Amino acid sequence: MYREPPPTVDNLKSLHDSELYQNLLRKFTERSNRKLDNENRNSTVLYSKLVYCHRCYHILGVPFEKVLSSFEKNIDQFLDYQLSVTVFLEAEDKTLKLEKSAWSKSDLISAWGIDTTFLLERFCEFYLLQSGDKERLLRYLIMRNVSYSQKYAAQISKLYHRTVLEN
Prior knowledge:
By secondary structure, the protein is mainly α. The chain is built from nine helices and no strands.
């Protein structure tokens, strides 16, 4: 499936520690009024999350440089999109609570990854949304074992259209 190797965990760590990425995290926290989980200060936890991100890029099957280049050209659009996704997930959490679901906010946060590495995997979603290939996006989400993949794909497609294409 993957013709070129996905980024190594070291590549992802370098990006995670880069000024570009840290500035993006700062902008996200400022605009969203949200504190990110800082458990990544523990190198073992950070490494395991970066391994997960590595898997996401492997599933994506696109050279990392291509994804990164696309992202770097669209940082502001990516940030707008990500803020919309965050609001959607928070609203979804409230809906789940109203339905007396077994999910709690902490379950939802751990499922969707609101920590300092979460943007690394969201680059993949954004890349697929930019490509406009809804089938590939759905396959990607299914392969990542995202709960309610079809519903999530439809929602993020709407959010992408509203926050990126209409602005």
